[in-house]
Amino acid sequence: MSSPKRRLLVTSALPYANGQIHIGHLVEYVQTDIWVRFQRMRGHEVHYVGADDTHGTPIMLRAEKEGLTPKELIANVWKEHKRDFDDFLISFDNYYTTDSPENEKLSQSIYLKLRDAGLIEMRSIEQAYDPVKEMFLPDRFIKGECPKCGAKDQYGDSCEKCGATYSPTDLKNPFSVVSGATPIKKVSDHYFFKLSDPRCETFLREWTQVKTPLQPEARNKMKEWVGQPGESKLGDWDISRDAPYFGFEIPDAPGKYFYVWLDAPIGYYASFLNYCQAKGMNFEEWVRPDTRTEQYHFIGKDILYFHTLFWPATLHFAGYRTPTNVFAHGFLTVDGEKMSKSRGTLISAHSVIESGFNPEWFRYYFATKLNDSMEDLDLNLQDFVARVNSDLLGKYINIASRSAGFLVKRFGGVVSDAAMNNPLLTDIASVSEKIAELYEAREYAKALRTIMELADKVNAFVDENKPWEIAKDPERESDLQRVCSVTLEAFRLLSLYLKPVLPQVTAEVEDFLSVPAMSWNDVKAPLSSQNPIKVYKHLMTRVETAQIETLLAANL
Ligand SMILES: [Zn+2]
């Protein structure tokens, strides 16, 4: 039944070390974590790594503003991010930083390999420069008046008032956000990764359109960029920045640094390398071109371009394997709207915990919304309360509380082995591979719908058999034991199916049912009279509507 053992390296996108983790980020970590936990339950070898993305101008400037060195700032933010991931039960095998010696070495060696392959070119370009602060200004650090409607204080790329898009040089009365000075033009040498090189074009056309089973939306998007031979829209990629910059220096180019987006994805490998060294694993075996291992990146749809063009090209031409696939998800909206600070819907992960929410409520809710597409998903706060209370508690948790008491009080917790052949149980166990396929395909919403339909069947079984009435009849002792045993075994199976989503609750269930940590194959390992169950303790509380108000207020 079980598939041959696979070897998987899995990543989630690297959060920028410039702010808090919010629920929009959590969608992705929860999505990845469910998949990773599912793969572990299947008995595969899975390594899940992440890191904070730490380099670039925004980090440098924020550190300065807070009177910290960039390294101090990113160390503080790392602790907060790690705390939030732990709180939400995100089971990284290694959570690292891109500002690591492993990443510096890997980035530099990858760059040199690209250069030796003739894919790096130096060119002089003219850019906005802050003459007071003596630094080049990224577009987001230039503001001015909109060239179209004259609105003041607009960014260099688009006007928030009239929606016009333009380039920073079009702004009227531009000023540097850093010092307030009027930017001047200055020429500087930059290093480019020649994506327009025919070798890159050919490789990326093949990789995105033929070789990789990308999501259809992703494949179409990339088709626009790589086009037909001679039609490619791929421009060369500027991978360098001038000092002052917080990042890694480019070899043989004093004062030039790698653009943060060059070293960030390499940070996946650096985190994995760091982990391999700690575990005595062979890193090379996983990253060489002929490897049999699999490599998956979970990302938001906004960074598809970096992960399906720049990253595979970087890897391929530096002599590494390329990703097996890249899985992009949509954005989270709250009550149908973009998350907003002023409405309190830009909800930080930490505020969820501080407001007394159970993180598994969110894991469950997100899972009921997630599928394999890049469609946006909505957190509807009323629906959240309803689903947690009526489905998670009312349909699932409730099953255990309805039958465990009788079994412990009347039978010392001993189940009836004969009851394990009940058709209801055969029925529930028979869909295990179907549910596994849905998890594998990231169709969590469908998987949970299937599981909740099974929960409905179990509740119907309890309602028909009425253990609370059988319990009154001294002559129906064995009936009572049978009904409660069937119900609890059904509850065990549902818990097994929900385990990737609800790791905490299911760990408590395993303890209460006296079963070892369940893997997927344990569908075939029913409860046994040899291991009496323990006294039922409440597994989860209801969410109260008032808690939602508290949460929104905490984020205003
Ligand atoms: Zn405007």
List its salient traits:
556 residues, alpha/beta, Rossmann fold, Methionyl-trna Synthetase, domain 2, Isoleucyl-tRNA Synthetase, Domain 1, 3 domains, five-stranded parallel beta sheet, elongated, binds zinc ion
Strand and helix layout:
Blueprint lengths: L6 E6 L10 H19 L3 E8 L4 H9 L4 H18 L6 E4 L3 H16 L3 E11 L4 E2 L5 E4 L8 E2 L16 E5 L7 E10 L4 H14 L4 H11 L10 E2 L1 E3 L13 E3 L1 H20 L3 H5 L6 E7 L3 H14 L7 E5 L2 E3 L2 E2 L10 H6 L4 H11 L7 E3 L1 H31 L11 H7 L2 H9 L3 H22 L1 H4 L6 H22 L4 H10 L32 H10 L2
Parallel strand pairs: 1-2, 1-13, 2-3, 13-14, 15-17
Antiparallel strand pairs: 4-5, 4-9, 6-7, 6-8, 9-10, 11-12, 15-16
Describe the protein in words.
The protein has 556 residues and is an alpha/beta fold. The chain folds into three domains: 7-117 and 259-329, 3-Layer(aba) Sandwich (Rossmann fold), CATH 3.40.50.620; 121-193, Methionyl-trna Synthetase, domain 2; 351-524, Isoleucyl-tRNA Synthetase, Domain 1 (Orthogonal Bundle). The protein contains 19 helices and 17 strands. The chain has helices at residues 23-41, 57-65, 70-87, 101-116, 198-211, 216-226, 260-279, 283-287, 304-317, 349-354, 359-369, 381-411, 423-429, 432-440, 444-465, 467-470, 477-498, 503-512, 545-554, and strands at residues 7-12, 45-52, 94-97, 120-130, 135-136, 142-145, 154-155, 172-176, 184-193, 237-238, 240-242, 256-258, 294-300, 325-329, 332-334, 337-338, 377-379. The strands form five sheets. Strands 3-2-1-13-14 form a five-stranded parallel beta sheet, with helices on both faces. Helix 1 links the parallel strand 1 and strand 2. It is elongated, with a radius of gyration of 27 Å. The mean pLDDT is 96. Zinc ion binds next to loops.
